[in-house]
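HUMAN: Forgive my ignorance: could you write out one protein's sequence and backbone structure tokens?

ASSISTANT:
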Amino acid sequence: MDDGRFAAIMAGLGPWVPDGAGMPEVGIAVSGGADSLCLAYLAGRWRRAVRALIVDHGLRPAASAEARLTRDRLARLGIPAEILVLEGLRPGSGMADRARRARYAALSAACRRAGIVDLLLGHHARDQAETMLIRRRAASGPDGLACMGAVTFTGDLRLVRPLLDIEPATLRGTLRRAGLEWVEDPSNADRRAERARLRATLCADPPAVMRLRAEAREAGIARMVRDAEQALWLARGVTVAEGGWVALAEDPACPRALAFLLRAVSGRDYLPPARAVAALCADPRPATLAGSCLVATGAALRRAGLRWLLLREEAAMQAPIPAAEGCVWDGRFVLSAPRGADLRGVSVGPAGPPGRWMPSLDWKAPWPARALRTVPALLRAGQVVGVPTMGICHDPALAGVRLTLRPGAVAAEAGRFVGGD
């Protein structure tokens, strides 16, 4: 793997923030293993403004020492690195999924702090083949069988996987030629894990890897076609309110797009059941958290005049949390405060009945009270002192404090359909 080939791959995955001159860095998730270390090595030669993020799960005695060793190796390459230590993870049921969630949460938070909008991940061709086998066994639908996209979007980041067509042997060869060593994680060979068992099988069958990659690529192309079609539907008939709900100008007719919007309104990680959402599109009707279709989403579908509204379900909203710069409430809203804002004793939570915080009962809101109850508010001693998304502030010390939707939460869900996969 040479610099020219890597640069050509990255050019096809742009656009990129300009390199240097005070512009944000491109982040790289680095475990210390050969794949992610090779990605960091190549990325550091592709551009100057990069930053490595090393996650220490703390699940093995050697993990902390390996993280520091990896940081030192990156420093010798001129790549600044930050170690992110995860607290509270314990071995047990669902360990892989819990560790993955904690890892991505830590990476997202670190990128948010640093102003990073692009995060490179080291998944390679065999990882893609393993994913295809796992999703086949789980009877995944068409989207799932498209496996990992070269570019995908989260609430904060563009996740970019430049190595999906590169074999791991090629990456190790690149490191050897550069005289670089890497960390070998013994858990990767633990046959008790499904992915490790599949890895051993695929290592002995290179043609199978090629077939599985080709299937994933074909499914990915089909997913992009569906994405483009749904982007048109979203652009034509969807309005997003700053308060976090969505208005549909027509009956929901596209189950896949509706599922993504439901996930966005609820701030959840996963899509609601496809069959249930399809049934809702076939027969649109008011449904709430108590309805079987939306139990897993924490969202509600309500009729408002000629429109349908997708609303956050009140009973599922997060409890108030302490207000702090950069905090995220309910998985959807990020707080930002000007210098000098006094956040002591202030929390972020649901606004509740609008009659308690509207400046005048004579004021006519353009949205129903059911929607306004779910907007994020600034609270002191349980009382609403500000509702930034509605332009309301009852406390001069909180002037300029904002609560804005995370980019991928609702406001840019349509962007996920444009060239994302």
Residues 206-237 form the longest helix (32 residues). The two ends are 24 Å apart (CA to CA). Confidence is low (pLDDT under 50) at residues 289-296, 410-421. Residues 159 and 364 are 42 Å apart (CA to CA).
